[in-house]
Amino acid sequence: MGKRILVLGSGVAGSIVSNQIVRKIFKELQTGDVSITVLGTTDTHCYQPGWLYLPFDLVRNEELKRSERTILDPLINFIIDSAKLIDVKANKVTGVSGKIYEYDVLVIATGSVPRPDLIPGLSEAGHWFHTEEGALKLQAALREFTGGKIVIAMGVPHKCPVAPIEVTLMLDDYLRKKGIREKTDIFYTYPVGAVHTIPAVAKWAVPVFEERGIRYETFFNMKEVDVSKKMLSSLEGSSVEFDLLISIPPHRGASVITESGLGEGGWIPTNKQTLQMEGYKNVFVVGDTTNLPISKAGSTAHFSADIAVENIISVVRGGEATHLYDGKVFCFIETGKSQATYISFNYSNPPVPPPPTTTVHWMKLSYNRLYWLTARGIL
Ligand SMILES: Cc1cc2nc3c(=O)[nH]c(=O)nc-3n(C[C@H](O)[C@H](O)[C@H](O)COP(=O)(O)OP(=O)(O)OC[C@H]3O[C@@H](n4cnc5c(N)ncnc54)[C@H](O)[C@@H]3O)c2cc1C
């Protein structure tokens, strides 16, 4: 029997890893010396960064989805059967169907999800855009909005580090175009003692907020929402009323991770360079579900997948994981007014965003289309 690679999750990380492996060891897959099986929850692959544009009517929802089967190389065995239990000691995974999948090398890429239920009242009174359903609900609320107070609040950790700044500046733009900015108070809150956790981004964002009349409060960690009073209070003791609450709920890893005892909060202890699960040479962790000290972002999934693939192939062939991830991340930042900037950084070099330009905005919009090539392991 050939070596069996089992990949859990068919989002960004799972798709890139699987497709890239096929491209690199095509012959072994054709001869059956190696096989790849991907377990997913659904055939629908969503381009999640597109959900940022959905509330502002800047994209159609249908443009953000593809069939996963068409993204994955035909040599990959794609099965819709969510992993229910991962047993890394016995090298096997049980699906919700009850079927058992044995492996030689396992790749865990089950991502992370927003958990509004962790903040009392947030599910009932808040909005968010980190799910398809949430982004559509926020789109409907904004279409009806005629003015008032909009509060923006984040839970930690969350995916896409720059989304708080982007949604705020895009909201400002949207309200101006709609002609109701004068009638709207935008109040931005952030959990640490600055408007963003990356110092260079915070330094750049403060004068932009001031120029656009966006008020802000730092050291604001969401505690609870009083649904009837429409009031959000913080762990630090302050509270703020709102007409519309736009939040990024705190995120957690997939439930299968905690239920299998692989990591608290769904975050798996991962070697930050080789991307192997701590203590297991034949288990790799890619994407949001790692506990790496770096942003949870699609680009993190992409750059770390490049390294993981080399190491997976090496381990499949009986070798060692010798390729090392340096923590590379690249994120565009939409700044409104048809402009954007970007940050590029790694474990040891913090980012410095250059001044926003229209060119970078168009590069971001182009990437939104090119993403499907990334998922196919081509770009
Ligand atoms: C609004 C928004 C804007 C963003 N903007 C950017 C951006 O500009 N730049 C950027 O780099 N990143 C951005 N991101 C973040 C990026 O989308 C994520 O970091 C990325 O999708 C993580 O990839 P992943 O493969 O780890 O997880 P996902 O892409 O979420 O994939 C995980 C997959 O695992 C599946 N799964 C879960 N549990 C199981 C199970 N038990 N069995 C089998 N499968 C399972 C899920 O269904 C899912 O398909 C944004 C995200 C959002 C929501």
Low-confidence spans: none
Task: Report helical residue fraction.
Answer: 25-40%
Q: Sketch the major β-sheet.
A: 5 strands, parallel
Beta-sheet strand percentage?
25-35%
Structural class: alpha/beta
Shape descriptor:
globular
Q: How many structural domains does the protein architecture include?
A: 2
* Rg over C-alpha atoms, rounded to the nearest angstrom: 21 Å
Main β-sheet, spatial strand arrangement: 5-2-1-9-20
Give the tally of β-strands.
22
Distance between the termini: 32 Å
Using the 3D structure, state the CATH architecture of the largest domain. 3-Layer(bba) Sandwich
What is the CATH C-level name of the largest domain?
A: Alpha Beta
And the CATH topology of the largest domain?
FAD/NAD(P)-binding domain
Report the average pLDDT across residues.
97
CATH superfamily of the largest domain: FAD/NAD(P)-binding domain
List the ions, cofactors and other small molecules found in this model.
flavin-adenine dinucleotide
Organism: Leptospirillum ferrooxidans (strain C2-3)
Protein name: Flavoprotein reductase
Pfam family, one: Pyr_redox_2
Domain FAD/NAD(P)-binding: 4-143
